[in-house]
Each structure stands twice: as C-alpha cells, then as structure tokens.
Specification:
The protein is mainly α. The chain is built from 15 helices and no strands. The mean pLDDT is 93.
Length: 324
Amino acid sequence: NLAILYSRTQRIQKAEEAYGEALAAYRNLAEANPDAYLPYVAATLNNLAILYSGTQRIQKAEGAYEEALAAYRKLAEANPDAYLPDFAMILNNLAILYSRTQRIQKAEEAYGEALAIKRKLAEANPDAYLPDVAMTLNNLAILYSGTQRIQKAEGAYEEALAAYRKLAEANPDAYLPDFAMILNNLAILYSRTQRIQKAEEAYGEALAAYRNLAEANPDAYLPNVAMTLNNLANLLLSNGRAEEADTHASEAEGILDPFWQARQELHGNQMARILSTRAQIFEVGNKTGEACALARRALAATYDQVIRQSIQKLIERICPTTRA
C-alpha cells in the first residue's frame, strides 16, 4: 500500500524499494503456504512491472510480468473462477509491452490468449467481462492495423464496436466514450482504405456521441468533439469537399481554442493539426496568404517533432519564398 502511494506521488525509488521489500516478504510466506500467498506474490510483481514499464525499464518489466503470469497460470489451473481474470489481465499487460517493443508475434499471441479467456468469462458473466472483451479486441485491432492486416483489424474493431454499442445502450455514462473511440478508430481505417462513405458515417456517429457527452461534461469531451471534427474535415478535404471541410475545421478551432489558451502544452499538438487542416483548405482555395499564416500558427503551436516536420513541409510548399 505504501508503494502504491509512493508511485502515485512520483516517488519512484521509494515505491520500488517498498514493492521489493513486500515482494521478498510474500515470497517467503509463499514458500510455506503457496495457496494463501502466491496471489500476493503475483499481484506485487504486476505492480512492480507497471512501475518498471512506466520508467522505461522494459527488460525488468518483462521479467516481472512473465513471473506474475507464471504464478497466475498456476493459480488459474487450480482455481479458474478466482484467478482466470487476473491471468488474462497480465496477458493483456504483457501484450501491450510486447507491442511497444515491436515484438508483434508475441503481442498477438498474448492478446489472443487473453481474448479467449475473456470471451469464456463473458459467456458466464457478460456484465462483468464484456467490457474486457471489447477492450482487448480494440488493442488487437490496433496491432493488426499497425501491421497492415486491414481485414483482421476491421473485424476486430467491428466486433468491439458491437460490444460497446450494447454496453453503451445499457450504461451510456460508463461506455459511450469507449463506443465513440472505437467509431473514430474504425473511421480512420475506412478512410485509409478509401471507403469514404463508411468513414464519414462512422465519424458522424462518433461526433454525435461526443457532442452528447460534452453536454454533460464539456471540459472532458469538447476536445474530443474538436478532434473528430478535424478528422472529418481531413476526410472531406481529401475528397474534394473543401467548403464542407472548412465548416468542420473552423468549428474545431473555435471549440479547442479556449482549452489551448488555458493549457497550450496539453492541447498544442491538436491545435496544430486543426490549423494545418485549415491551411490546406485555404491552399486549395488559392488563398496563399491566409494558408501561410495558418501554417505558421500551426508550427508555433506544436510540441511534437513529427507534426513539426510535416508542418514545415507544408510551409515550404505554401510559402515558397520564405524559409520556416
């Protein structure tokens, strides 16, 4: 408990020391009474792995996760009702780690095993475990999309969407944000594969969901409204509908601006994306001066090097006589 407190307050070394001491004590107890104390060993290893992962000590994180996984596998074999959920959780955490370190096959295998367990758990208790099924499907879809397995990604997203749609109908406060997130991810995939109508429909449904959420909690969800408007604007722009695109991008800028003014480091990259979209819209309309000014504002707003490089190329194209 003290380690968790230290971790939450960013006292990483003290957290690590406390977890280590707790782990040593639990290991000692588990030697004499594994049934009682092996679960504590596994849970502490998971917490320690999360700490290592958050501080970029990937090898240590992997070792802790894998030891926790072995413990939970043993526990789940003896008592599946009690420990299969924890076993699946560790598999998911390990899959995320493998994915971050580009070990795609190992990540896919871990996600697949976690998904099979969660599907089984959801059959008996959908209220408790269907959200976990949907989350794992989303993670798997992101993995498939990143490795250009578009058909598999689409299938996983669509199954996740169906699950979140069902959950959101029963409990919109809890699950409408996840439903909107999956719609946005799916729209991006449709857009990448030139299924423009399906992309537009998915963005439209995501936008409606985020607008609904923003009515009750504007501080939390208006930035998501702005993000989705900008995504939709980019889709329309790429398909020759610049006037409609500008309507959405202008609204996105107006929504995000007060958030950006209050916390530029948090919202700067998204504002840069919106301003870049608007610059490209003005470029299409042969309004070079306005386009150049928007692109320069975008460059000043961003904190991300990849976005910066993209905007610099845009400036070089729009403002050929001036170096960025």
